[in-house]
Write a structure and sequence with these properties.
Trehalose 6-phosphate phosphatase; binds ligand L263DTV3; globular; Rossmann fold; 11 strands; HAD-like_sf; EC 3.1.3.12; hydrolase; Alpha-Beta Plaits; metal-binding
Length: 267
């Protein structure tokens, strides 16, 4: 945990020291709630300057990736990630190594299903004040953060019990969101695919650090092993081994890690 003064807890610091000495490493991070504090308007999310600066430094010594539920195009627009960073969007389904669209193209049947699900979510949003729909290449997302709590609960219930229960869709719950996708989504698979692709093009990746704040990140935590460092940002049950309090704690962690990697490179 980061302490009240923003320092890193000793066990986490020790794990970062071991990680920093593990040769080639992959630093993979969730975006919303980890680099960027959560805000009402998804397109106003912005990473903390401390994290942006630390990631720029880390990109000189480490492989850096963002692994986000965001559409790849939005991640490019909002993340301020280093140019060398790999961007994985759509909860693991789109990868910047695969070109502009991230390599995911829907079949005609999937596109029809997405249009139907999107229309159903738009109908729910229109009937609930403060509720809106975000459009992504493989999914549609009902956002309830701005709604009255009872209204949010009712809109969520209608989305989950309605289009979220249709055959052929994949329904994910996140922080104030219900996401309905027409292809399977999973950050764990996307993260392992990326690690293996990097290793195929160079030395093996000695360890991965992954940090996330939402239930959708549990899949990535579970996919990693003993040599890896997993960090939950904020409260809530988790399979991650370590925790920081908030995105500011993440900026502190990334700065400490950049220092440790610089020191390891200088040895
Ligand atoms: O995997 P992530 O990078 O954490 O993306 C997860 C979802 O993030 C966005 O929604 C969340 O952040 C919004 C902006 O702060 C907030 O308003 C919303 O309540 C959060 O759930 C994004 O809009 C989704 O598409 C992502 O799946």
């Amino acid at each position: 945990m980061t302490t009240a003064s923003g320092e890193l807890a000793q066990p986490l610091l020790e794990a970062l020291e071991v990680f920093a000495g593990s040769g080639r490493v992959l630093v993979a991070l969730d975006f919303d709630g980890v680099l960027a504090p959560l805000v009402d308007d998804p397109m106003s999310a912005a990473p903390l300057p401390g994290s942006v600066a630390a990631l720029q430094r880390l990109a000189g010594t480490s492989d850096v990736a963002l692994v986000s539920g965001r559409a790849l195009a939005d991640l490019r627009l909002l993340s301020r990630a280093p140019a060398a960073a790999v961007l994985v969007g759509g909860h693991g389904t789109q990868c910047s190594l695969d070109g502009e669209d991230g390599g995911q193209v829907l079949t005609e049947a999937e596109a029809r299903l997405l249009a139907r699900v999107t229309a159903q979510l738009e109908e729910i949003a229109a009937a609930h004040e403060g509720v809106a729909v975000e459009h992504k290449p493989m999914s549609a997302v009902l956002h309830t953060r701005r709604a009255d709590r009872a209204v949010a609960a009712e809109a969520t219930r209608r989305a989950v019990d309605g289009p979220g229960s249709d055959p052929g869709v994949h329904c994910l719950r996140g922080k104030e969101v219900v996401e309905i996708a027409v292809v399977p989504l999973g950050k764990g698979a996307g993260l392992l695919r990326l690690r293996d692709r990097l290793a195929a093009a160079g030395p093996a990746v000695g360890a991965v650090l992954y940090a996330g704040d939402d239930v959708t990140d549990e899949d990535a935590f579970a996919a990693l092993g003993e040599a890896d460092v997993t960090v939950k940002v904020g409260p809530g049950e988790t399979a991650a081994r370590f925790r920081v309090a908030d995105p500011q704690g993440m900026a502190t962690l990334l700065t400490a890690l950049a220092d440790l990697r610089d020191a390891a490179a200088a040895r």
